[in-house]
Amino acid sequence: MSTHRPRPAGGRFRPTRRVLVTGGAGFIGSHYVRSLLGARAGRGAEEPRSAGDTAVTVLDKLTYAGVLANLDAVRGHPGFTFVRGDVCDESLVGGLVAAHDEVVHFAAESHVDRSIEAAGDFVRTNVLGTQVLLEAAVRHRTELFVQISTDEVYGSVAHGSWREDAPLAPNSPYAASKAAADLLALAHHRTHGLDVRITRCSNNYGPGHFPEKLIPRFVTRLLDGLTVPLYGDGEHVRDWLHVEDHVRGIELVRRRGRAGEVYHIGGGTELSNRELTGRLLALVGADWDRVERVEDRKGHDRRYSLDWAKARRELGYRPRRDFAEGLAETVAWYREHRSWWEPLVGAAATR
Ligand code: NAD
Known about the structure:
The chain is α/β, with parallel strands linked by helices. 38% of the residues lie in helices and 18% in strands.
Protein backbone atom coordinates (compact mmCIF):
# COMPACT_ATOMS: atom_id res chain seq x y z
CA MET A 1 0.00 0.00 0.00
CA SER A 2 1.27 3.53 -0.67
CA THR A 3 -0.40 6.71 0.42
CA HIS A 4 -0.37 10.19 -0.97
CA ARG A 5 -1.53 12.57 1.72
CA PRO A 6 -1.34 16.28 0.92
CA ARG A 7 -0.79 18.65 3.79
CA PRO A 8 -3.93 20.65 4.63
CA ALA A 9 -3.66 24.20 3.23
CA GLY A 10 -2.74 26.27 6.25
CA GLY A 11 -4.55 23.69 8.39
CA ARG A 12 -7.81 25.36 7.38
CA PHE A 13 -9.48 22.50 5.53
CA ARG A 14 -12.17 21.12 7.82
CA PRO A 15 -14.23 18.53 5.98
CA THR A 16 -17.77 17.89 7.12
CA ARG A 17 -18.14 14.80 4.87
CA ARG A 18 -15.54 12.10 4.28
CA VAL A 19 -16.18 10.00 1.21
CA LEU A 20 -14.23 6.84 0.38
CA VAL A 21 -14.20 6.28 -3.38
CA THR A 22 -13.00 2.86 -4.55
CA GLY A 23 -11.61 2.52 -8.08
CA GLY A 24 -11.12 6.27 -8.29
CA ALA A 25 -8.12 5.97 -10.64
CA GLY A 26 -10.28 4.33 -13.31
CA PHE A 27 -12.30 5.97 -16.06
CA ILE A 28 -15.58 6.83 -14.34
CA GLY A 29 -14.25 6.96 -10.78
CA SER A 30 -11.65 9.60 -11.67
CA HIS A 31 -14.26 11.79 -13.39
CA TYR A 32 -16.38 11.42 -10.25
CA VAL A 33 -13.55 12.37 -7.88
CA ARG A 34 -12.59 15.40 -9.94
CA SER A 35 -16.22 16.46 -9.99
CA LEU A 36 -16.65 15.93 -6.25
CA LEU A 37 -13.60 18.06 -5.49
CA GLY A 38 -14.63 20.72 -7.98
CA ALA A 39 -11.59 20.29 -10.22
CA ARG A 40 -11.72 21.05 -13.90
CA ALA A 41 -9.62 18.74 -16.01
CA GLY A 42 -9.08 19.27 -19.69
CA ARG A 43 -11.65 19.52 -22.46
CA GLY A 44 -15.28 18.97 -21.69
CA ALA A 45 -14.60 19.06 -17.97
CA GLU A 46 -17.50 18.45 -15.67
CA GLU A 47 -19.17 21.24 -13.73
CA PRO A 48 -17.94 21.65 -10.20
CA ARG A 49 -20.93 20.99 -8.02
CA SER A 50 -19.66 19.79 -4.67
CA ALA A 51 -19.53 21.67 -1.45
CA GLY A 52 -15.95 22.65 -0.68
CA ASP A 53 -16.15 20.76 2.60
CA THR A 54 -15.95 17.22 1.23
CA ALA A 55 -12.81 15.16 1.74
CA VAL A 56 -12.25 12.30 -0.68
CA THR A 57 -10.03 9.26 -0.24
CA VAL A 58 -9.45 7.10 -3.28
CA LEU A 59 -8.74 3.42 -2.66
CA ASP A 60 -7.41 1.85 -5.85
CA LYS A 61 -5.24 -1.19 -6.56
CA LEU A 62 -3.92 0.39 -9.77
CA THR A 63 -4.52 -2.68 -11.90
CA TYR A 64 -3.73 -2.36 -15.62
CA ALA A 65 -6.92 -0.22 -15.82
CA GLY A 66 -6.01 2.23 -13.05
CA VAL A 67 -4.17 5.36 -14.18
CA LEU A 68 -2.79 7.59 -11.44
CA ALA A 69 -2.46 10.49 -13.88
CA ASN A 70 -6.28 10.55 -14.05
CA LEU A 71 -6.13 12.13 -10.60
CA ASP A 72 -3.48 14.77 -11.38
CA ALA A 73 -6.08 17.55 -11.29
CA VAL A 74 -6.91 16.86 -7.62
CA ARG A 75 -3.47 15.85 -6.35
CA GLY A 76 -2.92 19.23 -4.68
CA HIS A 77 -6.43 19.50 -3.24
CA PRO A 78 -6.27 19.62 0.58
CA GLY A 79 -9.20 17.23 0.84
CA PHE A 80 -7.71 14.54 -1.40
CA THR A 81 -5.92 11.38 -0.30
CA PHE A 82 -4.83 8.46 -2.43
CA VAL A 83 -4.36 4.96 -1.02
CA ARG A 84 -3.03 2.20 -3.19
CA GLY A 85 -4.64 -1.05 -2.08
CA ASP A 86 -7.07 -3.85 -2.74
CA VAL A 87 -10.78 -3.77 -1.88
CA CYS A 88 -10.39 -7.43 -0.85
CA ASP A 89 -7.88 -6.49 1.88
CA GLU A 90 -10.07 -6.69 4.99
CA SER A 91 -7.78 -4.91 7.40
CA LEU A 92 -7.00 -2.03 5.03
CA VAL A 93 -10.66 -1.65 4.06
CA GLY A 94 -11.78 -1.83 7.70
CA GLY A 95 -9.50 1.04 8.70
CA LEU A 96 -10.50 3.19 5.77
CA VAL A 97 -14.23 2.59 6.07
CA ALA A 98 -14.05 3.42 9.79
CA ALA A 99 -12.55 6.81 8.93
CA HIS A 100 -15.21 7.81 6.37
CA ASP A 101 -18.90 8.71 6.43
CA GLU A 102 -19.78 7.32 3.00
CA VAL A 103 -18.51 4.83 0.43
CA VAL A 104 -18.95 5.18 -3.34
CA HIS A 105 -17.87 1.88 -4.84
CA PHE A 106 -16.57 1.90 -8.43
CA ALA A 107 -13.66 -0.58 -8.16
CA ALA A 108 -14.20 -3.52 -10.46
CA GLU A 109 -12.77 -5.64 -13.18
CA SER A 110 -14.83 -4.09 -15.95
CA HIS A 111 -14.00 -5.57 -19.36
CA VAL A 112 -16.46 -8.21 -20.61
CA ASP A 113 -14.01 -9.80 -23.07
CA ARG A 114 -11.48 -10.44 -20.29
CA SER A 115 -14.19 -12.05 -18.16
CA ILE A 116 -14.91 -14.49 -21.00
CA GLU A 117 -11.23 -15.48 -21.11
CA ALA A 118 -10.89 -15.89 -17.32
CA ALA A 119 -13.40 -14.85 -14.67
CA GLY A 120 -11.44 -15.42 -11.44
CA ASP A 121 -10.37 -11.78 -10.97
CA PHE A 122 -13.94 -10.67 -11.67
CA VAL A 123 -15.39 -12.84 -8.94
CA ARG A 124 -12.64 -11.86 -6.53
CA THR A 125 -12.77 -8.10 -6.98
CA ASN A 126 -16.40 -7.57 -7.99
CA VAL A 127 -18.05 -10.04 -5.60
CA LEU A 128 -15.62 -10.65 -2.72
CA GLY A 129 -14.34 -7.05 -2.77
CA THR A 130 -17.89 -5.71 -2.53
CA GLN A 131 -18.63 -8.11 0.33
CA VAL A 132 -15.53 -6.95 2.24
CA LEU A 133 -16.60 -3.31 1.83
CA LEU A 134 -20.21 -4.02 2.84
CA GLU A 135 -19.21 -5.90 5.99
CA ALA A 136 -16.88 -3.08 6.98
CA ALA A 137 -19.67 -0.56 6.30
CA VAL A 138 -22.07 -2.45 8.58
CA ARG A 139 -19.42 -2.85 11.29
CA HIS A 140 -18.50 0.83 11.28
CA ARG A 141 -22.07 2.13 10.79
CA THR A 142 -21.25 3.86 7.50
CA GLU A 143 -23.99 6.35 6.71
CA LEU A 144 -24.26 5.62 2.99
CA PHE A 145 -22.98 3.03 0.51
CA VAL A 146 -23.41 3.76 -3.20
CA GLN A 147 -22.85 0.70 -5.40
CA ILE A 148 -22.00 1.54 -9.03
CA SER A 149 -23.46 -1.11 -11.30
CA THR A 150 -24.44 -1.68 -14.91
CA ASP A 151 -27.33 -2.28 -17.31
CA GLU A 152 -25.63 -5.57 -18.22
CA VAL A 153 -27.06 -7.30 -15.12
CA TYR A 154 -30.43 -7.61 -16.91
CA GLY A 155 -29.07 -9.36 -20.00
CA SER A 156 -30.41 -8.59 -23.45
CA VAL A 157 -33.76 -6.89 -24.13
CA ALA A 158 -35.32 -7.23 -27.60
CA HIS A 159 -37.96 -4.49 -27.27
CA GLY A 160 -38.70 -1.75 -24.77
CA SER A 161 -36.47 -0.89 -21.81
CA TRP A 162 -35.71 -2.49 -18.45
CA ARG A 163 -37.16 -0.90 -15.34
CA GLU A 164 -35.43 -1.21 -11.96
CA ASP A 165 -37.71 -4.10 -10.92
CA ALA A 166 -36.82 -6.28 -13.94
CA PRO A 167 -35.34 -9.69 -13.09
CA LEU A 168 -31.58 -10.02 -13.21
CA ALA A 169 -30.45 -12.34 -16.04
CA PRO A 170 -26.76 -11.63 -16.67
CA ASN A 171 -25.08 -13.46 -19.54
CA SER A 172 -21.34 -12.68 -19.28
CA PRO A 173 -19.19 -13.60 -16.27
CA TYR A 174 -18.60 -9.83 -15.82
CA ALA A 175 -22.34 -9.11 -15.69
CA ALA A 176 -22.92 -12.09 -13.38
CA SER A 177 -20.27 -10.79 -10.95
CA LYS A 178 -21.87 -7.32 -10.93
CA ALA A 179 -25.35 -8.83 -10.38
CA ALA A 180 -23.97 -10.85 -7.45
CA ALA A 181 -22.45 -7.69 -5.97
CA ASP A 182 -25.75 -5.82 -6.36
CA LEU A 183 -27.66 -8.59 -4.60
CA LEU A 184 -25.14 -8.64 -1.75
CA ALA A 185 -25.49 -4.88 -1.42
CA LEU A 186 -29.29 -5.08 -1.27
CA ALA A 187 -29.06 -7.98 1.21
CA HIS A 188 -26.95 -5.80 3.51
CA HIS A 189 -29.64 -3.14 3.33
CA ARG A 190 -32.43 -5.58 4.13
CA THR A 191 -30.55 -7.59 6.75
CA HIS A 192 -28.53 -4.90 8.49
CA GLY A 193 -30.33 -1.68 7.57
CA LEU A 194 -27.26 -0.29 5.77
CA ASP A 195 -28.24 2.66 3.54
CA VAL A 196 -27.32 1.11 0.19
CA ARG A 197 -28.20 2.81 -3.10
CA ILE A 198 -27.43 1.20 -6.45
CA THR A 199 -26.93 2.97 -9.76
CA ARG A 200 -27.14 1.01 -13.02
CA CYS A 201 -26.01 2.89 -16.08
CA SER A 202 -25.70 2.52 -19.84
CA ASN A 203 -22.41 2.33 -21.78
CA ASN A 204 -20.25 5.31 -20.80
CA TYR A 205 -18.08 7.28 -23.18
CA GLY A 206 -15.85 10.33 -22.80
CA PRO A 207 -12.23 11.41 -22.30
CA GLY A 208 -9.90 9.11 -20.38
CA HIS A 209 -11.61 5.82 -21.24
CA PHE A 210 -9.14 2.91 -21.20
CA PRO A 211 -8.27 1.96 -24.80
CA GLU A 212 -9.57 -1.61 -24.60
CA LYS A 213 -13.23 -0.53 -24.67
CA LEU A 214 -15.03 -0.06 -28.00
CA ILE A 215 -14.96 3.72 -28.53
CA PRO A 216 -11.40 4.43 -27.30
CA ARG A 217 -10.09 1.25 -28.96
CA PHE A 218 -11.57 2.20 -32.31
CA VAL A 219 -10.50 5.86 -32.05
CA THR A 220 -6.91 5.11 -31.05
CA ARG A 221 -6.53 2.43 -33.75
CA LEU A 222 -8.02 4.71 -36.40
CA LEU A 223 -5.72 7.55 -35.33
CA ASP A 224 -2.80 5.10 -35.72
CA GLY A 225 -3.91 4.18 -39.27
CA LEU A 226 -4.94 0.64 -38.20
CA THR A 227 -8.11 -1.35 -38.88
CA VAL A 228 -10.85 -1.79 -36.28
CA PRO A 229 -12.57 -5.10 -35.40
CA LEU A 230 -16.38 -5.05 -35.59
CA TYR A 231 -18.05 -8.01 -33.87
CA GLY A 232 -20.46 -10.20 -35.89
CA ASP A 233 -23.08 -8.37 -37.97
CA GLY A 234 -22.51 -5.10 -36.06
CA GLU A 235 -26.21 -4.87 -35.15
CA HIS A 236 -25.71 -5.05 -31.37
CA VAL A 237 -27.39 -2.01 -29.83
CA ARG A 238 -26.09 -0.01 -26.87
CA ASP A 239 -27.36 3.14 -25.18
CA TRP A 240 -24.54 5.71 -24.86
CA LEU A 241 -24.11 7.89 -21.79
CA HIS A 242 -21.56 10.67 -21.47
CA VAL A 243 -19.43 10.08 -18.38
CA GLU A 244 -20.27 13.61 -17.12
CA ASP A 245 -23.99 12.79 -17.20
CA HIS A 246 -23.25 9.55 -15.36
CA VAL A 247 -21.28 11.36 -12.67
CA ARG A 248 -24.10 13.87 -12.25
CA GLY A 249 -26.59 11.01 -11.93
CA ILE A 250 -24.48 9.30 -9.26
CA GLU A 251 -24.26 12.55 -7.31
CA LEU A 252 -28.05 12.96 -7.45
CA VAL A 253 -28.46 9.44 -6.09
CA ARG A 254 -25.88 10.06 -3.36
CA ARG A 255 -27.53 13.28 -2.26
CA ARG A 256 -31.23 12.67 -2.88
CA GLY A 257 -31.75 8.95 -3.44
CA ARG A 258 -33.54 6.60 -1.08
CA ALA A 259 -32.07 3.74 0.93
CA GLY A 260 -32.39 0.28 -0.61
CA GLU A 261 -33.32 1.64 -4.05
CA VAL A 262 -31.90 1.04 -7.51
CA TYR A 263 -31.72 3.95 -9.98
CA HIS A 264 -31.11 3.78 -13.72
CA ILE A 265 -28.82 6.38 -15.25
CA GLY A 266 -29.46 6.31 -19.00
CA GLY A 267 -27.90 8.21 -21.87
CA GLY A 268 -30.74 8.48 -24.38
CA THR A 269 -28.74 7.61 -27.53
CA GLU A 270 -29.25 4.05 -28.75
CA LEU A 271 -27.01 3.05 -31.63
CA SER A 272 -25.95 -0.21 -33.24
CA ASN A 273 -22.21 -0.82 -33.17
CA ARG A 274 -22.27 -0.45 -36.97
CA GLU A 275 -23.87 3.00 -36.71
CA LEU A 276 -21.39 4.02 -34.02
CA THR A 277 -18.48 2.80 -36.15
CA GLY A 278 -19.76 4.91 -39.06
CA ARG A 279 -19.76 8.00 -36.85
CA LEU A 280 -16.23 7.32 -35.60
CA LEU A 281 -14.95 6.78 -39.15
CA ALA A 282 -16.50 10.11 -40.19
CA LEU A 283 -14.94 11.92 -37.22
CA VAL A 284 -11.42 10.71 -38.03
CA GLY A 285 -11.91 10.97 -41.82
CA ALA A 286 -11.53 7.22 -42.54
CA ASP A 287 -13.51 4.82 -44.79
CA TRP A 288 -15.23 1.48 -44.23
CA ASP A 289 -12.19 -0.33 -45.68
CA ARG A 290 -10.62 0.22 -42.25
CA VAL A 291 -13.28 -2.01 -40.65
CA GLU A 292 -12.65 -5.75 -40.24
CA ARG A 293 -15.60 -8.01 -39.52
CA VAL A 294 -14.54 -10.44 -36.78
CA GLU A 295 -16.22 -13.44 -35.18
CA ASP A 296 -18.88 -12.40 -32.69
CA ARG A 297 -18.14 -12.26 -28.96
CA LYS A 298 -19.39 -15.40 -27.19
CA GLY A 299 -22.83 -14.88 -25.65
CA HIS A 300 -22.92 -11.31 -27.02
CA ASP A 301 -26.04 -9.54 -25.73
CA ARG A 302 -28.01 -8.08 -28.61
CA ARG A 303 -29.41 -4.97 -26.99
CA TYR A 304 -29.32 -3.12 -23.67
CA SER A 305 -31.86 -0.45 -22.86
CA LEU A 306 -32.70 1.25 -19.57
CA ASP A 307 -35.87 3.04 -18.57
CA TRP A 308 -34.63 5.94 -16.40
CA ALA A 309 -38.05 7.48 -15.61
CA LYS A 310 -37.55 6.78 -11.88
CA ALA A 311 -34.36 8.86 -11.69
CA ARG A 312 -36.06 11.63 -13.66
CA ARG A 313 -39.18 11.58 -11.47
CA GLU A 314 -37.49 11.26 -8.06
CA LEU A 315 -34.17 13.02 -8.61
CA GLY A 316 -34.70 15.32 -11.59
CA TYR A 317 -32.08 13.41 -13.61
CA ARG A 318 -31.84 13.70 -17.35
CA PRO A 319 -28.79 13.39 -19.59
CA ARG A 320 -27.62 16.80 -20.80
CA ARG A 321 -24.77 16.02 -23.17
CA ASP A 322 -25.59 15.93 -26.89
CA PHE A 323 -24.15 12.67 -28.26
CA ALA A 324 -22.77 14.03 -31.57
CA GLU A 325 -21.01 16.86 -29.74
CA GLY A 326 -19.78 14.63 -26.90
CA LEU A 327 -18.42 12.06 -29.34
CA ALA A 328 -16.62 14.71 -31.42
CA GLU A 329 -15.08 16.14 -28.23
CA THR A 330 -14.02 12.66 -27.15
CA VAL A 331 -12.30 11.95 -30.47
CA ALA A 332 -10.59 15.35 -30.24
CA TRP A 333 -9.41 14.50 -26.71
CA TYR A 334 -7.75 11.29 -27.93
CA ARG A 335 -6.13 13.21 -30.80
CA GLU A 336 -4.67 15.67 -28.29
CA HIS A 337 -3.71 13.20 -25.55
CA ARG A 338 -1.50 10.59 -27.24
CA SER A 339 0.87 10.70 -24.29
CA TRP A 340 -2.01 9.49 -22.08
CA TRP A 341 -3.13 6.54 -24.18
CA GLU A 342 -0.05 5.34 -26.07
CA PRO A 343 1.52 3.58 -23.02
CA LEU A 344 -1.87 2.03 -22.18
CA VAL A 345 -2.42 0.47 -25.61
CA GLY A 346 0.39 -2.02 -24.92
CA ALA A 347 -1.04 -2.79 -21.48
CA ALA A 348 -4.48 -3.36 -23.02
CA ALA A 349 -3.02 -5.86 -25.49
CA THR A 350 -0.73 -7.80 -23.16
CA ARG A 351 -2.01 -7.19 -19.64
P1 NAD B 1 -12.17 0.94 -15.04
O1 NAD B 1 -11.80 -0.45 -15.44
O2 NAD B 1 -11.76 2.09 -15.91
O3 NAD B 1 -11.61 1.25 -13.56
C1 NAD B 1 -11.66 0.31 -12.53
C2 NAD B 1 -10.75 0.81 -11.43
O4 NAD B 1 -10.85 -0.12 -10.33
C3 NAD B 1 -9.26 0.88 -11.83
O5 NAD B 1 -8.70 2.09 -11.40
C4 NAD B 1 -8.64 -0.32 -11.10
O6 NAD B 1 -7.28 -0.10 -10.76
C5 NAD B 1 -9.53 -0.41 -9.86
N1 NAD B 1 -9.54 -1.75 -9.28
C6 NAD B 1 -9.71 -2.94 -9.93
N2 NAD B 1 -9.63 -3.96 -9.06
C7 NAD B 1 -9.43 -3.42 -7.83
C8 NAD B 1 -9.27 -3.96 -6.52
N3 NAD B 1 -9.30 -5.28 -6.31
N4 NAD B 1 -9.10 -3.11 -5.48
C9 NAD B 1 -9.05 -1.77 -5.68
N5 NAD B 1 -9.16 -1.20 -6.90
C10 NAD B 1 -9.35 -2.02 -7.97
O7 NAD B 1 -13.75 0.90 -14.86
P2 NAD B 1 -14.84 2.04 -15.19
O8 NAD B 1 -15.22 1.96 -16.61
O9 NAD B 1 -14.41 3.33 -14.61
O10 NAD B 1 -16.07 1.47 -14.35
C11 NAD B 1 -16.28 1.84 -12.99
C12 NAD B 1 -17.50 1.12 -12.47
O11 NAD B 1 -18.63 1.43 -13.30
C13 NAD B 1 -17.36 -0.40 -12.47
O12 NAD B 1 -17.94 -0.89 -11.28
C14 NAD B 1 -18.16 -0.84 -13.67
O13 NAD B 1 -18.71 -2.13 -13.47
C15 NAD B 1 -19.23 0.23 -13.75
N6 NAD B 1 -19.78 0.47 -15.10
C16 NAD B 1 -18.98 0.90 -16.12
C17 NAD B 1 -19.57 1.15 -17.37
C18 NAD B 1 -18.78 1.69 -18.53
O14 NAD B 1 -19.35 1.93 -19.59
N7 NAD B 1 -17.48 1.92 -18.40
C19 NAD B 1 -20.90 0.93 -17.58
C20 NAD B 1 -21.67 0.48 -16.53
C21 NAD B 1 -21.09 0.28 -15.28
